[in-house]
């Protein structure tokens, strides 16, 4: 075994698909802080299989620490795939689990950033060697051949809009709901919020009580999820966190689905004028929803821009992954 991709706690689509693209073994260990089970299982695995290169999904900070501490003993290279949650915090828990371990990034053979603005941030704020920090965009999503309508969701195709939610703190779902309900578009279109709402039960219950026009889908399978995206009138995405490129944007591009998103410096830099943006100022999203859903010309404009953006992002993704593959192969030969 030459390359292994390690993830603790939760695993993202990027990790699964990037591991597949690189042909690496994927070791995912579900666990919670202080990650003792994950730690001992990881050390046992490394001792048994002796990989040449270990790629880490960060967060979590303790995974980085333990991998660096055991590197000399087991003779492997460390590559850190740094998600924004490792450096940008939405809670004290996230800060405590990650910030104390930032200093160990400089001991990695390679640090991976998910976009150029985030790469610049890591080099500038973490004192990393620019030659050892590369940008690797997400693998382009593979759409299921036969998307399937969820059996427990009562919606008609193109009679709803969707916000693909992970129920993370950087998603201002209360704002999204408030703006939707104040829009004229809410008279015609339902709002679907996907994802495991049990992660924020109180908020989910509050949203559920606010209107019967809002549907919480809960967790759905891949085929059902892509059906929801495909047959929506419009995809709404958003984050309050800088340096994040949203998975839901990649998925919308793969489907050539019109989408709007919140404005951040990073999203503006990557997407440019190929979409429309809202801010978290009251009325901003409401106006944009009414513009897009009450004016077919707006959706036609978005579709045209997305076709061009899709090809550009595909190329960025493919080239960056190929560059990473070459680097990993070189590390494996050391």
Describe this structure in words.
The protein is α/β, with parallel strands linked by helices and 334 residues long. The chain folds into two domains: 3-136, Rossmann fold, CATH 3.40.50; 160-314, Glycogen Phosphorylase B (Rossmann fold, 3-Layer(aba) Sandwich), CATH 3.40.50.2000. Helices cover 44% and strands 16% of the residues. The chain has 13 helices and twelve strands. A six-stranded parallel sheet has the order 2-1-3-4-5-6, with helices on both faces. Helix 6 (116-126) links the parallel strand 5 (110-113) and strand 6 (133-135). Helix 7 crosses helix 12.
Could you list the spans in which at least 5 consecutive residues all have pLDDT below 50?
none
Number of helices: 13
How would you sum up the global shape?
A: globular
Under CATH, the homologous superfamily of the largest domain reads: Glycogen Phosphorylase B
Structural class, by secondary structure, is: alpha/beta
Quantity of strands, as a count: 12
Organism: Staphylothermus hellenicus (strain DSM 12710 / JCM 10830 / BK20S6-10-b1 / P8)
Protein name: Glycosyl transferase family 1 domain-containing protein
Question: Which terms would index this structure?
Answer:
334 residues, six-stranded parallel β-sheet, alpha/beta, Rossmann fold, 44% helix, 12 strands
Helices and strands in order, then pairings?
Blueprint (H helix, E strand, L loop, with lengths): L2 E6 L4 H10 L2 E5 L6 H14 L3 E6 L2 H9 L1 H4 L2 E6 L9 H7 L11 E4 L2 H11 L6 E3 L24 E4 L9 H9 L8 E5 L6 H10 L3 E5 L3 H9 L3 E3 L10 H9 L3 E4 L2 H7 L4 E3 L5 H10 L2 H38 L1
Parallel strand pairs: 1-2, 1-3, 3-4, 4-5, 5-6, 7-8, 7-10, 8-9, 10-11, 11-12
Helix pairs in contact: 7-12
Organism: Staphylothermus hellenicus (strain DSM 12710 / JCM 10830 / BK20S6-10-b1 / P8)
Protein name: Glycosyl transferase family 1 domain-containing protein
């Amino acid at each position: 075994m030459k390359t292994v991709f390690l993830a603790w706690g939760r695993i993202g689509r990027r990790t699964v698909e990037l591991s597949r693209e690189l042909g690496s073994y994927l070791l995912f260990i579900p666990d919670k802080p202080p990650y003792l089970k994950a730690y001992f299982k990881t050390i046992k695995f490394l001792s048994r299989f002796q990989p040449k290169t270990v790629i880490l999904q960060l967060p979590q900070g303790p995974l980085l620490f333990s991998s660096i501490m055991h590197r000399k003993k087991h003779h492997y290279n460390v590559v850190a795939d740094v998600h924004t949650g490792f450096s940008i915090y939405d809670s004290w828990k996230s800060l405590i689990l990650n910030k104390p371990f930032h200093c160990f990034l400089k001991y990695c053979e390679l640090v991976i950033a998910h976009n150029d603005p985030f790469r610049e941030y890591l080099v500038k704020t973490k004192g990393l060697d620019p030659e050892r920090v590369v940008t690797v965009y997400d693998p382009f999503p593979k759409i299921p051949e036969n998307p399937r309508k969820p059996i427990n969701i009562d919606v008609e195709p193109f009679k709803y809009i969707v916000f693909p939610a992970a129920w993370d703190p950087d998603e201002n779902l209360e704002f999204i709901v408030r703006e939707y309900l104040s829009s004229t578009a809410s008279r015609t279109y339902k709002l679907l919020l996907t994802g495991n709402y049990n992660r924020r039960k109180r908020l989910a219950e509050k949203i559920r009580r606010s209107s019967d026009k809002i549907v919480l889908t809960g967790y759905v399978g891949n085929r059902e999820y892509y059906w929801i995206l495909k047959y929506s009138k419009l995809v709404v995405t958003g984050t309050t966190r800088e340096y994040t490129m949203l998975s839901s944007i990649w998925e919308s591009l793969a489907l050539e689905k019109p989408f709007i998103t919140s404005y951040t410096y990073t999203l503006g830099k990557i997407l440019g004028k190929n979409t429309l943006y809202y801010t978290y100022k009251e009325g901003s999203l409401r106006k944009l929803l009414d513009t897009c859903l009450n004016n077919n010309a707006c959706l036609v404009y978005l579709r045209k821009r997305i076709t061009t953006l899709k090809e550009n992002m595909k190329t960025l993704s493919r080239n960056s992954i190929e560059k990473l593959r070459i680097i990993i192969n070189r590390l494996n030969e050391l």
